[in-house]
Design brief:
404 residues, mainly alpha, globular
Length: 404
């Protein structure tokens, strides 16, 4: 490698580090917005829904927002660039707080569900921050850039639940009214921070040069990454959505549930300080396998007992499993795309992941209400098995044929 090439890579990674730092802060604030919704959604839903079986519907609609926004966010990025697209998306975060406030003060279940849809739209844009950091990174730094951005979730894991605890009674007699106003303020701050990222607008690609979508799904590496990412994210959301409501049902308090989500979110993002390094050393497929194993252990912990400690252990293991599984799968997706295809590939991946996640989220409340917390955990094992088999077959090396 020439000195000129080394200088170019160093300069590129200096920009990637700067962008990764800014995007980690934005992740922290967007993640706090999401964490508030995770901590309050099922509880508020139980109070506003016409039927207890619909208590988790707001979280399911959040996931619908995630899936519905994935392709439009990709189009906004392609048309206006990442900075403008992300700032547009933060307006959905502001609407989340405002509609959430109206929902609880007017005791309107539909308005509160609209708030969670907006939260999903905002979170969908935030999910692509990890890919944004990779845009200006060298191949060697790309897994670390993704990992750095994800560390912002550690702050989210503290800020979000604390926002709930500090503000839930700030505007009596309506529980959580002050929390949702705080949510809107946090989203405005995120929009300001995002104005400092410096990522070139994607170059237009001639239609003839683009691979059709069907080609991506014939790529074994891409398909494996999508299956593993979808399974990991769906199971995390499936169990996490039910956990606060299950804790309340077992006689634990709202603060216990909020702190359970706090430890869960910290576990989701805490390992990000070194996940990128582990991927570089051991390869993404092994890290994904470790994530699937941790997710299965979370279900074991959930089945072991109903104390606060059991719930916390299950949520922490679930968060760790998500970190390894999802970041590993994201690195696999990033490696399958050509530079001019990244926005398209990322949007397709996120649409598939969040679409599968929506199916799991809609069933979470029904399974919890009709069959209990134990069944929520039993569902984890077959899905982990399917993802593990996909990973094993998807990463087998093809043996070249020998001419006779």
């Amino acid at each position: 490698m020439t000195a000129t090439t080394q200088d170019m890579l160093a300069a590129g990674d200096r920009l990637a580090r700067r962008n990764a730092f800014i995007l980690s802060l934005a992740t922290a604030l967007a993640g706090a917005n999401t964490t508030v919704m995770f901590a309050t959604g099922a509880i508020v839903g139980a109070g506003l829904a016409p039927s207890r079986s619909l208590a988790t519907l707001p979280i399911s609609i959040f996931v619908v927002g995630l899936a519905a926004a994935s392709l439009p966010v990709g189009m906004l990025i392609h048309r206006f660039g990442r900075r403008a697209a992300y700032q547009i998306a933060t307006s959905a975060g502001v609407l989340t707080g405002l509609f959430g406030y109206l929902g609880v003060t007017l005791a309107s279940f539909p308005i509160f569900c609209l708030a969670t849809f907006c939260a999903g739209f905002y979170a969908s844009a935030a999910q692509s921050y990890r890919f944004a950091a990779a845009d200006t990174a060298s191949d060697a730094f790309r897994p670390k850039a993704i990992s750095w951005v994800m560390t912002g979730g550690i702050i989210a894991g503290v800020v979000g639940p604390q926002l709930v605890v500090w503000t839930k009674d700030a505007m009596p007699p309506v529980l959580f009214a002050g929390t949702f106003i705080g949510q809107a303020v946090v989203a405005i701050l995120a929009g300001v921070i995002l104005s400092f990222i410096d990522i070139p607008k994607p170059k237009p690609v001639a239609a003839a040069a683009r691979r059709p979508v069907s080609r991506f799904f014939r790529d074994r590496a891409f398909l494996t990454a999508v299956v593993c990412g979808a399974a990991t994210y769906m199971l995390m959301n499936f169990v996490m959505t039910a956990a606060p409501l299950a804790m309340i049902g077992c006689g634990h308090g709202v603060d216990d549930a909020a702190y359970g989500i706090q430890w869960h979110v910290i576990a989701m993002y805490g390992p990000s300080f070194f996940t990128g390094g582990l991927i570089s050393r051991f390869g993404a497929p092994r890290i994904v396998a470790a994530g699937l194993a941790l997710t299965a252990l979370a279900a074991v912990a959930g089945l072991a007992g109903l104390t606060v400690a059991h719930f916390y252990l299950a949520l922490v293991l679930l968060g760790l499993g998500w970190n390894f599984g999802y970041i590993g799968a994201s690195a696999m997706v990033a490696a399958t795309a050509q530079p001019e295809e990244r926005t398209q590939v990322q949007s397709i991946n996120d649409f598939c992941v969040f679409g599968v996640m929506a199916v799991g989220s809609f069933s979470s409340g029904q399974i919890l209400t009709n069959y209990g917390w134990d069944m929520v955990n039993w569902v984890v094992f077959p899905i982990v098995l399917v993802a593990a088999v996909s990973l094993a077959f998807g990463t087998l090396r093809r043996v070249p044929s020998t001419a006779h």
